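Input structure tokens:
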């Protein structure tokens, strides 16, 4: 974190009290403190947005539901690009 590839765009400038969680896989819960931080705050329903629908967005939605969260995938807040993979998802 802190390198150019992990830089947070200035439009989303975090506040001092904001928690930043770095992930290394499409699953935002895998090997991160996300579940712990949500539980500390008593959060039971999460709203998900993201960049690549068929990877991180899909994986995180499914994982969140599996571990007991209510999940809302916010319409028109996720996308994709042609990555030449064989997975194609249309919502």
């Amino acid at each position: 974190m802190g390198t150019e590839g992990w830089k947070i765009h200035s439009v989303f400038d975090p506040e001092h009290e904001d928690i930043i969680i770095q992930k290394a896989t499409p699953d935002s819960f895998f090997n991160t403190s996300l579940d712990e931080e949500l539980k500390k705050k008593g959060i039971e329903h999460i709203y998900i947005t993201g960049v690549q629908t068929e990877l991180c967005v899909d994986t995180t939605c499914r994982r969140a539901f599996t571990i007991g969260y209510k999940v809302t995938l916010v319409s028109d807040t996720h996308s994709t690009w042609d990555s030449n993979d064989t997975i194609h998802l249309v919502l």
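The domain at 4-73 is CATH 3.40.50.850 (Rossmann fold). Strands lie at 45-48, 70-73.
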